[in-house]
Amino acid sequence: MTLLMVACMAVACSTTRRIDPGEQLYTGVDYIHVNPTDGEKLNSEMVANIKEAVNVAPNNPMPFMSPYVRTPLPIGLWVYNNWSDTARGLSGWIYDKLVAQPVLVSDVRPDVRTKMIEDILDNNGYFGSTATYEIKQNAKNPKKARINYEVNVGKPYLIDSIIYFNDRSNPTSLYIDTLLRRSEYLKVGERFVTDSLLSVRVNVANRMRNRGYYFFRPEYIEFLADSTIHPGRITLKAVYASSTPASALRQYHAGDVTVRVLRSNINEPGTPDTIDNPRAKVIVMRPATLDDDLVPECVSFRKGRLFTVRDMDRTQTRLSRLGIFNSIDIQAVPRDSALNVDTLDLQITCRFDRPIETMLELNVVSKSNSYLGPGLNVGITHHNLFGGAEKLSVAFDAAYEWQTGRNKSSLFNSYEFGVTGTLSFPRLLAPKFIPRSQRDLNWSTIVLSGSILNRPHYFKMVEFETGISYEWRATRNTRHIFTPFKLSYTKLLSTTASFDSIMQSNPAIALSFQSQYIPKLSYTYTLDKFLEREHINKINFSATLTEAGNLFDGIYTLCGAKGVKHMFGTPFSQFIKGHGQVTYSRRLIRKTEHWLVVRAALGIAHAYRNSVEVPYAEQFYIGGANSIRAFTVRSIGPGSYRAPQSQANGYFDQTGTFKVELNAEYRFPLFGYLHGAVFLDAGNIWLLKDDPLRPGGKLVGSRFLKDLALGTGIGLRFDMGMIVVRGDLGYGLHVPYDTGTGHYFNIPFKNAFAFHLAIGYPF
């Protein structure tokens, strides 16, 4: 209310009263005219760079419209001009929170901006270009002014010819010539671009440093440009910079590798113990526990081979992936620079991290069991159990959960307790025929877990799970997880009469809840990378393929078994399931945290042979904090099916074997750690097989678009980097079933809201 009163009073207040004489309030730009030479056309990136040079936001700029359009309520300026900066109490607090210093024309420095534009054009081969500006004074208030820019672009200069080193007596120069001739940025007839020449120099330096020329730097190559030989065209000549040292043009070989492993406690340095290995000499400060071969296996260098930066990076990465060091320092030292010896010795210093890590976490999260609520997680991890970077983790979790949002009939409580133990090895536990280089420094994980879930009005269920998985990275941006064996066992310990009546009325749901073994094999591929150096566009793709029961079914069939096959007296499940999603993120404003993020997800599951239905835990559902946020978990679908209003437990029915989910979210900073979001979500689940007890649940192409639930909303995120606390308020726009309204936006206003509190971003 106070802020509203301030805004109302400020309407009649001046925004220039405190502007000093001779100064003018900058109110933005009317136009930026970019005029190419006749017959020439500037590419969009060049135009964007020109406009970026003058993109100075005035006070209260309109999002995405700066510097052209301002919002009509410059509250910060009103406060600055009409409130005292010495005020105390409430007035002082309001001043501190709302004040905005005026952006003046002198702050913008348009003369500097035009010089920046000319430099940009010169660096891109448009020599002789000019940029001018005009300060346009406000007719009603001379203390306000806008700035207009006029840019006249010269004719581009093209590369006419390139003169290389061509020194056949010098192998180094010949190799550099080869790299220059192969460069895609250095071609006769192409426009002269300074940034392209820089890219060429960086690429040459990287190639040289990976060919033994460790001390070579990009600045040691210069390109002399001559425009006098052929007017309007450039003759380039590659030369060594005068500052190039002799060491930069010398190939070096790898010498001795010495690794010092220090203790985590700097106050107790310990006693040195030397481990000799063909790859490296390791000096360990005892009593630290460390396998003799662990660190040497991380060293990529081989004595006598060319010394490359690639091997340094590889060694750094491998040591880091062990997860037992908190600092790693690698130094290359010439063996004897005075004697011009072409050998570099490697000195590596590692310091142990604390071996034991504890974790205590109290949070509110959206869980895989479809509920929302407070959870307590307690865990302990030993990062170097046997001295070989083996990681043992034991975690206990407990949760008391409820559903939130619309559909208050679904409100009921449950609790869950569980314990999970994982043992990870920094190598693939694989047969010897797999090359050692592919087995080492990847991860094998053995998991053993158990949990109990109690829903007091319906059932009590236990689940046990064990398995082994392999994780490795083929490249910096890709990750693979292969799980050759995972065995789950679920069993209903007890049920209520209400739950039994529901199962009797729907045999398909009952089959998915039956006690069963689930022997699974799965593979997951993940790609996560930025598409350019400026980190503007990012893509994340992940896909998981899971099969269950095929191996066991094959064995039983070969042994002559017929009908439903059992393991230890309990049937095992047989199905195939696939799920994939792609997330694309685009930074809307450079060097800011304004992001547009979109996601598309698709899932499909099918049971066969030994199973009639996919297990309930393996089916898809929609809604919740990380899905369609205008709806609670398991409150939509399958298809246009609507659970009976009298059935408080309608979520039992609302799972499916086909899933489509589409999300779009605009994320923007507010102040400090606080960020905002506006989102639009759509999706649903369907059945691949018709279920008469769930009419409208089967996937039908003609109804696909109508079956998509739609919702929008706003959110707040408290992003501290290590943790993100998120609150989303969703507003439902469309449900796939008939609500009696007769139009597309068919959700009554009072029933359209859902609130979700969660940890982390939704995608």
Task: Give a quick summary of the entry.
The chain is α+β, with helices and mostly antiparallel strands and 763 residues long. The protein has 14 helices and 29 strands.
Describe the structure.
It is a single chain. The chain is α+β, with helices and mostly antiparallel strands and 763 residues long. It contains 14 helices and 29 strands. The strands form 5 sheets. Strands 12-13-14-15-16-17-18-19-20-23-24-25-26-27-28-29 form a 16-stranded antiparallel β-sheet. A 5-stranded mixed β-sheet has the order 8-9-7-11-10, covered by helices on one side. Helix 2 (44-53) runs antiparallel to helix 6 (110-123).
Describe this protein with a few key phrases.
763 residues, alpha+beta, Ubiquitin-like (UB roll), 5-stranded mixed sheet, 29 strands, disordered N terminus
